[in-house]
């Protein structure tokens, strides 16, 4: 970027995309270095996604796994992703307990393929409320997830990954240790964030 005269610290310079392109394979993902601060009881997950199609576009946008489970899955502190539903994609988010129970909320509206869509999820541990957003607007909510997300596991892999099994592009992934309000999400989903 320096050779081209663009700024390393200004996300709007250059104006070309810096999105990661993912091929949809199980081993095609980004690993985020793990940190203690990623262990979250309450959280906000955000990203821009551009899935290729309704079959290959299904996958995990972001998750933190904390323990390998006997069924081959993982206990998850948080997860947001896309899944195939009736020939379309839909948003889901939540977490998985160490006993294998999935506490997941699914959006009703289809996520389009071949175009950018902003997706987000917030979980408030105090009120047991999980809310999903597309393009800054609430698309699903529940207050029935009263069991806290697992922060630690009892063995196996622990990781934070972006883009597992997802074919398409992912950009501007944001992980917050706070529950952002509907107003904050609507006001900032299309804005460049600085000093956050």
Model description:
This protein has 196 residues and is mainly β. 4% of the residues lie in helices and 46% in strands. The strands form two sheets. A six-stranded antiparallel beta sheet has the order 1-12-3-8-9-10. It has a six-stranded antiparallel beta sheet with strand order 2-11-4-5-6-7, with no helix packed on it. The chain is globular. The mean pLDDT is 91.
Task: Give a concise summary.
This protein is mainly beta and 196 residues long.
Q: SSE layout and pairings?
A:
Elements: E1 20-23, E2 30-32, E3 43-51, E4 59-68, E5 74-85, E6 88-96, E7 102-111, E8 117-124, E9 129-134, E10 137-142, E11 159-162, E12 167-176, H1 182-188
Antiparallel strand pairs: 1-12, 2-11, 3-8, 3-12, 4-5, 4-11, 5-6, 6-7, 8-9, 9-10
Keywords:
single chain, 196 residues, 6-stranded antiparallel beta sheet, 12 strands, 46% strand
């Amino acid at each position: 970027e320096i050779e081209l005269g663009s700024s390393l610290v200004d996300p709007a310079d250059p104006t070309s995309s810096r999105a990661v392109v993912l091929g949809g394979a199980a081993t095609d993902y980004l690993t985020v270095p793990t940190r203690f601060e990623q262990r979250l009881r309450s959280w906000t997950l955000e990203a821009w996604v551009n899935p290729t199609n309704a079959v290959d576009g299904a996958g995990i946008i972001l998750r933190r796994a904390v323990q390998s489970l006997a069924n081959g899955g993982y206990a998850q502190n948080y997860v947001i992703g896309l899944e195939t539903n009736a020939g379309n994609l839909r948003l889901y988010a939540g977490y998985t307990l160490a006993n294998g129970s999935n506490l997941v909320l699914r959006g009703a509206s289809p996520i389009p393929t071949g175009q950018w869509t902003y997706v987000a999820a917030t979980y408030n541990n105090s009120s047991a409320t999980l809310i999903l957003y597309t393009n800054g607007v609430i698309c699903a909510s529940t207050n029935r997830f009263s069991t806290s997300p697992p922060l630690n596991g009892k063995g196996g892999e622990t990781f934070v990954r972006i883009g597992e099994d997802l074919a398409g592009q992912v950009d501007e992934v944001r992980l917050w240790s706070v529950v952002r309000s509907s107003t904050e999400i609507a006001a900032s989903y299309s804005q460049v964030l600085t000093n956050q």
